[in-house]
Amino acid sequence: MEYQWNWGVFLLPSAVNDGTYLDWMIAGLQTTLLLSLSAWVIALLLGAVVGVLRTVPHRGLSGVATAYVEMFRNIPLLVQLFFWYFVLPEMLPTAAGDAFKALNPIAQQFVAAMVCLGFFTSARVAEQVRSGINALPHGQKNAGLALGLTLPQTYRHVMLPMAFRLVVPPLTSEFLNVFKNSAVCSTIGLLELAAQGRQLVDYTAQPYESFVAVTVAYLMINVVVMLLMRKVEVLVRVPGYLGGK
Amino acid sequence: MITIDKVSKHYGNFQVLTDCSTHVNKGEVVVVCGPSGSGKSTLIKCVNGLEPFQQGDIHVNGTSVGAAKTNLSKLRAHVGMVFQHFELFPHMTIRDNLSLAQIKVLKRDKDEAAEKGIYFLDRVGLKAHAHKFPGQLSGGQQQRVAIARALAMDPICMLFDEPTSALDPEMINEVLDVMTELAQEGMTMMCVTHEMGFAKRVAHRVIFMDHGKIVEDDNKEAFFANPRSERAQQFLAKILQH
């Protein structure tokens, strides 16, 4: 039997009469963007803190940070997602667990997915930040301290500005990964881009059109991210270093 | 000004410094020399607490470096240090390199810090480069900026850790000239260096180290004319050939 291509499917009114199938895809795209961007903010903030802690000369702090990274890096994302969504609400103190369950189901899915993706990615960001700090010449830290700056001041004004510049390229990959990993969140029922694509197949029996649309949407997101990060790279270039003039 | 009293340091089983004692008086220029691995850089980094040590103590202007209650940041703010690899902050302009610690540590206001920075930049002959970034300067220029950066903190003494070792031969003199001028103005200086010409001209005393020990500690005339230890004689014989 020949496959009947029908690109017009996206303009058909949906089976449940809530707009067209294109509206479904757009809603999915919005969820993916919102989820990934908020997870990325969490990942950057937490990852920066944990990455710094891994390099400080204090065994307790760096030990805690190492344990954090190894835990979130070595457990599959899917398992972590199930933990945040199904297990953790039952383990929380009753009041907090009930507050979570009182949210509407979509909000529950979104919050669990956002936190899960944010923590998972933060462990990876932490590793990049740590490698950036370790890549700096050791004398930079000494130079900051020798001027009388405290260790936190030395991190803030001397080491981190250069460390972050060094790791813009690997952070770009992590940024791209957030969007790709967000597809896993469809497994708890969150209607993001991939889930909307699958739903479209169920309703219209037009799998090729649906998955081509989903693929193109992910590609477009990541092209935009790459262009954006290239801009960032150029903006933070240091004259005389790292390709700057 | 600086008193080093029976300082010993080890990394695990490896003894880096053994029972080192010496002192640097106010206005005195002391050159520390010796073969590589002799512990001279480690010793000078102990003076401002960048390297911890296990035994003995160091006093800078009466403040103990080894004591747990000493605020090391406060002490370092007035002990200038110049490094082998300059260690300017590459993401900041020269002006900001000079201002940063003045503002954050000494709490000077921005304009005052900038003015002071420019004054010292002028003294090392680099006023015209204030707006540039370190990567746009030559090694010798960067090292002069590093000296100016230390001076802008109004240090009570200066530590130099092989300030010319990473420089092209042509640029060594411009840095040594700045150091010589500083010495002539009466700055207290402790310099780890292989520049024996500088030591002969400028130093008051020379310390010779080998295997983590201070082998010779003498005024420069005695050191160069008649080194007592065999190791120092060999060292001088080799280094003074050229």
Percentage of residues assigned to helices of chain A: over 70%
Q: How far is it from the N-terminal to the C-terminal residue of chain B, by CA?
A: 34 Å
Q: Using only CA atoms, what is the Rg of chain B?
A: 18 Å
Main sheet specs of chain A? none
Q: Note the total helix count of chain A.
A: 10
The whole-number mean of residue pLDDT values of chain B reads 94
Strand content of chain A: under 5%
Strand order of the largest sheet of chain B: 6-7-8-3-9-10
Contiguous runs where pLDDT drops below 50 for at least 5 residues of chain A: none
Oligomeric state as shown: heterodimer
Descriptive notes:
The complex is a heterodimer of chains A (245) and B (242). Chain A has 245 residues and is mostly helical. Chain A has one domain: Orthogonal Bundle (MetI-like fold), CATH 1.10.3720. Chain A is built from ten helices and no strands. In chain A, helix 8 packs antiparallel against helix 10. The N and C termini of chain A lie far apart (61 Å). The mean pLDDT of chain A is 93. Chain B contains nine helices and ten strands. In chain B, the strands form two sheets. Chain B has a six-stranded mixed β-sheet, with helices on both faces. A four-stranded antiparallel β-sheet of chain B has the order 2-1-4-5, with helices on one face. The interface between A and B is medium-sized, with 23 and 34 residues.
